[in-house]
Amino acid sequence: MKAYVIPDGQARGLDAIELADVPVPTPTPGHVLVRVHAVGLNPVDYKLAEGGNESWTYPHVLGLDVAGEIAAIGEGVEDTWKVGMRVAGHGDLRYNGCFAEYVDAPAYELSLIPDDVAYTTAAGVLCGALTAYQTINRKPNLNLVRTALVHGGSGAVGGIAVQLAKMHGITVFTTCSTRNIDYVRDHVSPDAIIDYRTQDVDERVRELTDGLGADLIVDTVSGREAARDLGRLAYNGQLVTIVDVPPVSGGQMFGGALSIDVVNLGGAHASGNPVEQRDLGTMASDILSMVSQGQLDPLITGVLPFSDLVDGLRSLADHRVTGKLVVDVDA
User: Fold this and answer.
1) Rounded distance, CA 246 to CA 224, Å?
2) Structure pTM?
3) From CA 84, how far away is CA 82, in angstroms rounded?
4) Which residues are in the Enoyl reductase (ER) domain (predicted)?
5) Strand partners, 305
6) How many folded domains does the chain comprise?
7) Are residues 14 and 103 in the same domain?
8) What backbone phi and psi angles, to 5 degrees, belong to 204?
9) CA–CA distance from 179 to each of 150, 183, 322 (Å)?
């Protein structure tokens, strides 16, 4: 089969990626063989190409987000899974991935794709959307959350997180650059947009919250931004970060009765915790149902042919992508 690979342990970076012929995998115990129809592109993909992983064997097939159909079933897989089922899932970065015609995927990560959701759409609501799902529907206690600041509303995580927060009736503000304001307004629909290039984020949060601060902040940017976010929180405020943990003192935490949560979506694979592993499929099912029912805009802004996959990763690495890029493997 054709697959995009890092050929050996010395090869690193986007220029090192090769389209190679490799054997079709055989499904291992607890796994199914998925015939790949579409894949999602994520920043973690180019970062892995640049940095590698100590668990890899070579040639290593890249790719984490897959949508396709079950072609074969391994030993020990529950009999609810059948050959021909349309499925999607977020993979384990330690093992061969889905930038290929077939992938060996653990059954626990998979969700059925609704009949009215295309493969390309399903592939686009995995890594980013599941991360967003955890920032809103898994980590924070939403009982007293009235206001939320979500960074990066034009991105695959932030844009979905804004939509999910609004489903809970929360008043949501988001940050973005000047050039993305129209896109965020039209597709994400927050209650307020903060242009971080021309506006003071601290000042705008104070204005939008009557000086109280935001009850919930989702940081998708950096540890430095997360440190600033601690000062933007309301009393009893919650910070959820997907990038880095900010330095914070006990006095600051107790003084504001603050809490910090960390999202590490793919870490569930290596956790050894079957409940957390199965939750990858559960969350994907929920997200795909929302898309099917028209409750969630998947924010897909580009569908590329398989031949342009590496160019898509370059666009991500160069920060030229708004929303989500996917690849149609059949094109």
Assistant:
1) 7
2) 0.97
3) 6
4) 12-327
5) 328
6) 2
7) yes
8) -65, -40
9) 18, 8, 10
